[in-house]
Design goal:
By secondary structure, the chain is α+β, with helices and mostly antiparallel strands. It contains 2 helices and 8 strands, in the order E-E-E-E-E-E-H-E-E-H. The longest helix has 22 residues. The two termini are 30 Å apart.
Length: 133
Amino acid sequence: MKYTITDYFGDRVELEPCLELYTVHDFMGKEMPGLAIQLYFIDEEFGEPELYEDLTVCFGEFISLRNAAYIDTNNCYFAQQLLEQGIAKDTGLKKHSGFCEYPLWVFEEGFLREIGRENYEKYKAAYDAYAPI
């Protein structure tokens, strides 16, 4: 799955997202997995994926909203372009840290499964065991 953004120079860049997991803690200190989405640029000359940017940012806390993560708009100036491509919905909630503001997005389950099925299953199992609904 690839997504195209326009960079600072007006060039089109194709990125491949990959789902990894952060270690976060609930309010009692229990370790939980958190969603970490990394964006890779595929170098056409060498064919090797290169980390372009981390889309999500971790504050170390468990987010009790399923499939949610804070977005690193401080480093991902292009995040809105990805949101417009339908990977997630903006909740309207934000976390402030220093001079930066990080929106909370809820990612589409199909998107998360496609970019990292094994890690998503680990996240989902831990989430469901913690907050069964």
